[in-house]
Design goal:
D-Maltodextrin-Binding Protein, domain 2
């Protein structure tokens, strides 16, 4: 315990006194579920933060990739795990808010069935095109899509993910007919855009930045309030006449509900210390992540706000609930 508190420094000063039955936590390896395949942004963030928490705790943090249903399968695994602090997860907005809006039968309630620990990061989304699609701008894309309705498709990281919902919001706002092609995570979707199997993709900047910089895909617009510093010539959708299409993705850490508060406090202290560590910031901010590390109460309020926000968007856009 003393070693952990020293490692966490100032962050640990805010941790509540720990219950006697949690004094030795963690006494064995921690399983960190990432509900997407290896190689995507959720996996990158999970591995970088998990490695730093491993260093702080002095215990292994083992990544468990459990992909499917836009992150719901992995998050549900945590919701139904033993609430002892040895099974935790880092998932995106899809599993923690959007699926609640878009799925008729959610297997868990993100607010009631999970102990929401902290918001790890926000990540801007960017819309890219295959280099074989004859467009170089959003205006070109909209004109082509209107001339050839139903013939242009777009990849997403899964049904009910932020890339899916953000792309649907753009589709509705632009008044175009493009076809959704869902994948089980970012990595296989990116591969197919690079390989010209799919025409478009809206996804987290970390998943697409290397491909953009290598010229393998063409960046059209950022779906965020501000331009991305590493791509200063790529405009925002707001600049191009679509201010309502703002779809930053985000990633949060959670544990099963009923995890002892003392254990949640230790996990929170370690997670916040991890996102504030200079080496973690260097690795993730260079790829487009905006690191956060707020309180558990703030994160829970944020999730409730996201659920309310996207519920209104789904209703206004007429997106079908599955």
């Amino acid at each position: 315990m003393r070693a952990l508190l020293r490692a966490l420094g100032v962050v640990a000063l805010g941790v509540l006194p720990l219950a006697a039955n949690a004094q030795d936590y963690p006494a064995k390896p921690i399983r960190l579920v990432v509900p997407f395949p290896p190689g995507g942004p959720n996996d990158i963030i999970g591995r970088v933060v998990g490695q730093k928490m491993q260093d702080l705790f002095g215990q292994l943090v083992i990544i468990d990739n459990r992909a499917g249903a836009g992150g719901v399968i992995g998050a549900d695994n945590i919701a139904k795990s033993e609430p002892d602090g040895y099974s935790i997860g880092i998932a995106s907005a899809g599993a923690l808010a959007l699926s609640t809006v878009l799925m008729e039968k959610m297997p868990y309630d993100p607010v009631k069935d999970l102990a929401l620990i902290t918001l790890i990061a926000k990540v801007p989304e960017i819309l890219v095109a295959s280099t074989k699609l004859p467009v170089t701008s959003i205006a070109d894309l909209v004109a082509l899509a209107k001339a050839r309705p139903g013939t242009i498709n777009y990849a997403s990281t899964g049904v009910e993910s932020m890339p899916h919902l953000g792309a649907e919001l753009f589709r509705i706002s632009a008044g175009i007919d493009i076809v959704h092609v869902p994948y089980r995570g970012a990595a296989p979707a990116v591969n197919d855009v690079v390989g010209h199997q799919v025409h478009l993709m809206l996804a987290d900047i970390p998943a697409l930045l290397p491909q953009i910089q290598a010229g393998r895909v063409r960046a059209l617009a950022v779906a965020s309030r501000s331009r991305f510093p590493a791509l200063p010539d790529v405009p925002t959708l707001a600049e191009l006449g679509y201010p309502q299409v703002e779809a930053d993705n985000w990633y949060g850490m959670f544990a099963p509900a009923r995890t002892p508060p003392a254990v949640v406090a230790r996990l929170h202290a370690a997670a916040v210390a991890a996102v504030k560590a200079p080496d973690v910031q260097d690795k993730l901010e260079s790829q487009g992540a905006i690191l956060v590390g707020n309180t558990s109460a703030e994160f829970a309020a944020f999730v409730r706000g996201e659920i309310a926000k996207w519920s209104k968007v789904v209703q206004a856009a007429g997106i079908k609930i599955n």
